Amino acid sequence: MGGLKVGKSVPRVGDLGSYIREQRRNAQISLRQLARTAGVSNPYLSQIERGLRRPSAEILQQIAKALRISAEVLYVQAGILEERDVDSDVPAAILADVMITERQKQVLLEVYDSFRKENSSDDAPVDDTDSSAGVPDATDDLTDAADAAASGP
C-alpha cells in the first residue's frame, strides 16, 4: 500500500472515537442503536467514542458495517492501515463496462470525479452557499442519459 498523504499523521485513538461519533451523528443513529447493531455494549462503544478504549480490527469492522461506511476508513483512522495515495479502479471499471454507452460512461466519470474532488481536501474552505457546486450539470446529464437509456434505442 502507498504511504500516508503528505501532511497527514497517524491519528490518535481519541481522533478515531471522535470520527466514529461524528459518523454516528451524521447517520442519526443513537449510541444504543449503533452498539446493538455493531454487537458491542453501550459502555464499550461510549468508551471508544471518548477515546478511552482502542477497538480491535474486528470491532472496527462491525462498527463500520453498522454505520454503512468502509471498514478501511476506520482502519486508517485507527492507524491500522496507511492511507492509500493511489487512484481507485472505479474509472477503469466504468470504461470497461460494455453495457453502458460512451456518453453514459463520460457522465459517470464526471460525477465520480466531482465527488472525489469534493472529498479530497480536508483543508479546502467549505462554501455553504452552494453545497452542490459542480454536481448539478453532471447530475442533469446523468438523469438525461438514464432517461434516454430507458426510452430505448
Strand tally = 0
Please report the distance between the alpha carbons of the first and last residues. Answer: 44 Å
Bin the strand percentage. Answer: under 5%
The level-1 CATH class of the largest domain: Mainly Alpha
Provide the number of structural domains.
2
Give the SSE string.
HHHHHHHH
CATH superfamily of the largest domain: lambda repressor-like DNA-binding domains
Number of helices: 8
Structural class: mainly alpha
Which parts are unreliable, with pLDDT below 50 for 5 consecutive residues or more?
Answer: 1-12, 122-139
Question: What is the CATH architecture assignment of the largest domain?
Answer: Orthogonal Bundle
Largest sheet: none
CATH topology of the largest domain, anyone?
A: 434 Repressor (Amino-terminal Domain)
Cα-based radius of gyration, to the nearest Å: 19 Å
Provide an overview of this structure:
By secondary structure, this protein is an all-alpha fold. The protein folds into two domains: 13-78, 434 Repressor (Amino-terminal Domain); 90-150. The protein is built from eight helices and no strands. The protein is elongated, with a radius of gyration of 19 Å. The model is unreliable at 1-12 and 122-139 (pLDDT under 50).
